Amino acid sequence: MTKLQHDHDRPNVPNVVIPKGITPFFFTSARGRLIRLDNLTDALLQRHNYPYAISKLGGEALVLVAGLASALKFEGSFSLQIKGEGAVSLLVVDCTDKGELRFYARFDEEKLAALSKEATALQLFEKGLFVLTVDQKNDKDTYQGMVELTGNTLSEMAVEYFKTSEQLPCWIRLSCEQTEDGWQAAGLILEKIANDPSIVIKSNDEIESAEEDWNTLTILAETLTSTELLDIQLPHEQLLYRLFNSTSVSIGSPKPLSYGCRCSRSRLKNILKTFSQDDLHSMSENGNITMTCEFCRYDFIFPRTEIIQ
């Protein structure tokens, strides 16, 4: 339910923190992350109360962005934007360097109603652009990569992005389901580590060995089921051991994930002050102007007299 904000600068969003949201792990020539949003999934998805297909897509996207952001060294936000031409015209997910997640989607209800409840990502978007952006603090350079949507699922779209934009082999599995205990979302990401240019590979045998190691890891990862991924009673370390016990896997320190929206009353007020008097008048209803944050669904109420040019 939407709450009205009159006096507080920041909305009172759910205080949900998952201390072990992401578990990184490493091999000789690859690295990976196991991501589980736990009850953070339900807190984020229920905020919007989107139709099933949109919520499922949103949960998978949240897992993807959390996993990708955790592998980067940056201060600011890492975001995914998918601009579609189908039932879903826009999906936006972002994650800060501290693991704070938020998202929203725009969709056409009539087009969505014509699709199956289990519609794939491609069926929802039809076609469009897959965009990843790193927006850093303190006016540092912004990095952005963009490719056309390719693939049937969100996992396949992300793999194709890295293949096309980064020339980096990766393996991704994402899962999001509505359970008796609420929504759950989880994922596993594997990335082949690029060759260090300072190291000279002396023989084709070494190249073939690295390829064999990568193929072995992806074959093992393919045995992972959605049930295992979403089973929060199954410890991260135990799951990773099940998958990769035949390899030399090392597990790193877990990283937290949390609910995070950076909207504020003061920021929205400054935006309102850029509008003309006529625009403000048309936005006003019963002497108030309401601005809703698309990420956290909070309504900020501004008395018209408060916004004086």
TrEMBL record:
Pfam families: HSP33. PANTHER family: 33 KDA CHAPERONIN. This is Hsp33 family molecular chaperone HslO. It comes from Commensalibacter oyaizuii. Keywords: Chaperone, Cytoplasm, Disulfide bond, Redox-active center, Zinc. The keyword Cytoplasm applies.
